[in-house]
Every structure is written in structure tokens, then in C-alpha cells.
Amino acid sequence: VIGEYAVLALLGFAWGAAVGSGFIALLAALDVIPRLVQLSRSRDCIRLYEWALILGGLSATIVDLFSVSMELPIWTMAVFGLLSGVFVGMLSAALTEVLNVLPILARRFRMQSVIPYLVSAMVIGKIIGSLINFLFPALSP
Amino acid sequence: VLAENRIDIYVRPRQRLSVPRHALLTVGKIAEVAAVGAGQDALLEIPVHRLTDQDGTMCIIPAIDVIVALKRRLPEAEIHLIGPSETIVDIRDIRESRPSALAVILVWLLLFTGSALTIMNFHADVSMLRVQQNIYYLMTGAYSLHPYVLQIPYAFGVGVGMALFFNHLLRRKVNEEEPSPLEVEMFMYEQSINDYVITQENSKKHEGRV
Description:
The structure holds two protein chains of two kinds. Chain A is an all-alpha fold. Chain A has six helices and no strands. Chain A has helices at residues 2-29, 32-40, 46-66, 75-99, 101-108, 115-135. The radius of gyration of chain B is 28 Å and the shape is elongated. Chain B has seven helices and eight strands. Chain B is α/β, with parallel strands linked by helices. Classes of the chains: A mainly alpha, B alpha/beta. Chains A and B meet through helix 2, helix 4, helix 5 and helix 6 of A and helix 4, helix 5, helix 6 and helix 7 of B.
């Protein structure tokens, strides 16, 4: 029995290590963190940001797996919602950028001069899409 | 004695320029020129190539053509090439100079719809509602079928995040001198198109000779 537990524990640990490193690799590949560092001009604080990622992932895993509620007041939900939204927004912008849609479109249609409007189209589209998702679940795909 | 009548001309071709149709491309238009031991202004006016309809919308001027044109005028001058060995010339059509409003609106709507659709697909993909209900429970201890207080800030956060990434909010205030990732991407894309065009044009010429 102890042998089985040892194998399971090893399996779980390896699994978690793979998921954790994959998660960080994804973030690194998408350039979200360098972008945030560039925006906030805090190149010296990268160590702190690494710990933020590690602690965020770890604490979410713990509360999620053990289903323990933190019993926080409701307004914390709004803060969490906004922050997670900003993060997902940056992720999806990074994806769009990797896919190179905008530069190609702008060049094809000779629209380099109106790129800010094109970006606004995507930004507003994302907000409306999310709102439809949540406010009218029946309309969601 | 030798140094006195020696003429040195330094030529730095521009990488890309945009001119109207049937323009006369002179040395000064194609390249930056610095002359030592000779008048510079006269050199800038030396014609290199007159654009015709056959040039289409784009043509390549090899730096060699500029050097030949200079040599023809000043056979004894020594010419130093610094910079790219070709110049890409975009030939402007007057009606193409500004995108039409209708086209902009269409592209805007295309991006808008695509962007909305992809985020909805993403939310469905990751079972966003269930995750949000779970987070709502984990944080508050209560269960909510529609945790709006989480969802609505999230939705606007998605927009803020994208705008932040593209440097839309902070452009004027904080990060004036930093290019946005989109500008960098745009530059890389144009750069690879330039490389492609030059390589392609060169191999075409080569085939023509053989």
C-alpha cells in the first residue's frame, strides 16, 4: 500500500511539474510579461513577478483542489474579475499579434493610417462578445 | 598633390521610397549623397531612371545604377557605397493614397465580429461560466448561477488588457518613445516583404539574362 501511495505521489508530482512548467512556457512564449514590464518600466522587479506567477498558480491550485472557500466580501469579486479580464485581454491581444492578422490586413487594404481604429474594433468586439456570453447565456455558442 | 584633385563620393541608398507615377528618379531621390572635393547639389540632380507604365506599381533600383550614373558624370571620382544595395520604389497611384471610408468600415466590422466571436469561442472552450461560478464560491462561500459582479468587470477588463497590450491607453502619457508590439510587428512584416521583393526581383533579372 505504501508502495502504491509512493507511485501515486510521484505521478502527481511529475504531473504538476509538467503542467506548471507548461503554463509558464505558454506565458513566456506570448510575451505578456515582457510587455507588462515594458509598460511599467520595472525591469528590476522581474523576480517579484516570477514569484507572483508561482504563488498565484499555487494558491489557486490549493483552493481549487480542496474546495475551501475564503469567505471574502463580494466586492473582491469585482476586483478579481477586472484583473483577470485584463490578463485574458492581454493574452488574446498577444495571440492576435502572433497570428499577424493586423499587419497583413492593414497592408493588403492599404490601411496603415487607420490602424488605431482597427485595434478599437477588436477591443470593442472582445468586450461585447464577453458581455453577450455572460448576460445572455442562451445566445452563447 | 594627388589629394587635391581627388573626389570622393559617399552614396547611401534609401531602403524604400514612394513616388508618384512617371516620376524622374534622380540620384538625390534614391540616395543620400555626400561628396568630398566636388559640388554636391549638382550630383543630386543626375537622372538615374524615368518611371514608365511598364514599371507597374513597384520597381527596384540597384545601387549599381546610381554608381554608374555618378561615374558617367564624374569618371575620375571614387564612389563609396554605404547602406543597402537596392532601393525599393513604390509607385503611388493618386487614388490609392487614402483608404476609402467604406473599406475601412468593412474591415472594422470584420475585425469587430471576428474578435467578438473568438472570445466567445474561447469562453465556451474553457467552460468560463463554470470556472467563474467556482471562483465565486471559492472566494465568497456563496453559490451564484450568474456571478455578474465577477463577469462584468471581467468583460471590460478584457478590453483594457488588449488596449494595454497595443499601447493604446498609455501612448501619450508614459511610453511615448516605446513602439507598441503592433508597430514592431508591422515593421518586421514590411521588412520581410522588402527582402522578398528584392530577392525575387534579382532572380527574375538573372533568369532574363540566361
